[in-house]
Amino acid sequence: MTRITIAATSDLHSHWRPGTVGGIAGAAAVLAGIDRDRAVVIDAGDLLTGSPLGAHQTLLRTDAGAEHPLLTALDGLGVDAAVPGNHDFDDGLDSLLGAAAALRRTRYLCANAIGDQGEPVFAPSAVFVREGVRIGVIGAVTSHVQRLSRHGGLEHVRFTDPVTAIADQALRLRPEVDLLVAAYHGGFERDPETGAPLDYDRGENQAARLLEMPGLDGLIAGHTHSARAGTRARDDGARIAYAQPGYAGSHVGVLTFEVEAGAVQVVGARAVPVEVNAPSAHVPRAAAERLEPLHAAAEAWLDSPCPLDDDALHAAVAARAGSRRTALGLPPHPRTWRSLLAHFPAPHGASDYRVPRREFEDAVREAGARGGDSGDGRVPRTATAPRFRVVDHGGADGGADAADSPEQWVAVTANPAFGAHLHPSRVERAHLVDWLDEFARVARHVHFSGATGGDHA
Ligand SMILES: [Zn+2]
């Protein structure tokens, strides 16, 4: 009888040592304590963006085909299999393919990312052998990548239904392996314990469906940043173990199985909390030597001037949010990346509002009175007050005013500095966007095209 462990991270979001949760370093310290001869280590995606370290790397990433230090760190952590998260596509498919091609140990898996010729663009699955036990791992990502990620660079890939893609792979792999696990960058649409819905079931999260899939012994989920783990019996009588490892290294998911003569017994599943500021001695050197200096460089970069002017920032928000009007409170000059980050805090640095026109005009007046209003040339009242401005970007339907009538409602994307002047009930949609990363991408383009403003499409 062989005891096999599946250990997993997910949604690390480029946090090395964030201070409040474990980060990659903390998770790495937990992984270092696992007996690798009898384990497969998985990362379930959303690794590359979400912290200043990630945004700084986005800014510096001028060669789309090059390795990406955060992805390469998976090699250093001894991760066997990784799946892309929706955010890992933010810099486009080619960029991710280039970074994945540089991996040596880690197999990058995704069964439902399909190219123009109908071919999977990543390996759909891989088989690992531990102490003679054959362990199959199937990777997949939420089919909502195109809606959730930045659109540019994804013209030559489509994301098919992950449940179907995993089922196809499971059917093919099952006869060849002793133990079969799916790693899915998507969350639970229903509580796996109670069956209660966790969100509107739009198909973005389908992990609960995967628990019902015949042939699977284990499931690693991600995307929604929850930490959960458990085991359950399927309708066909078999048991399945599952784990979702939280956010930014808050937890490591650990599934345990006993395998004997091809028969699998589920032993247990845990979401292990990760120690904050794990001692460096427990962090693999290969990863630490690579990421520790990048972490320090990102901290220094935050205090450097941001080259984007107001127009460029408004245009960036409009383009990413798909909005025709933006109302932003922006940090006064001199403007650093850190001050910009403070004005677009995670997780909802900007939201879409729908507001009666009169209420919106009151908010503009109120914001302008509290801070500065660079729109009409008035000087800000204090040096630290945000500069408020409303920009209409026009649109295919002939302009904002035509679209606002006859109800006389205003649709606008605002950051919290401006949104504070609007009633919370007016929020239509909160954008889960890493704005620092988005602005870094625009700044990279400005730098290399020599453009000065908002042209960044
Ligand atoms: Zn995600």
TrEMBL record:
Calcineurin-like phosphoesterase domain boundaries: 5-226
One GO term describing the cellular component: outer membrane-bounded periplasmic space
The keyword Hydrolase is assigned to this record: yes
Entry coiled-coil feature ranges: none
Keywords tagged on the record: Hydrolase, Nucleotide-binding
Matches recorded under Pfam families: Metallophos (PF00149)
UniProt KW Lipoprotein keyword: no
GO molecular function: hydrolase activity; nucleotide binding
GO process terms (BP): nucleotide catabolic process
SUPFAM superfamilies found in the cross-reference section: Metallo-dependent phosphatases (SSF56300)
PANTHER family xrefs: 5'-NUCLEOTIDASE, 5'-NUCLEOTIDASE-RELATED
Protein family according to the UniProt entry: Belongs to the 5'-nucleotidase family.
Protein name: Bifunctional metallophosphatase/5'-nucleotidase
Lineage: Bacteria, Bacillati, Actinomycetota, Actinomycetes, Micrococcales
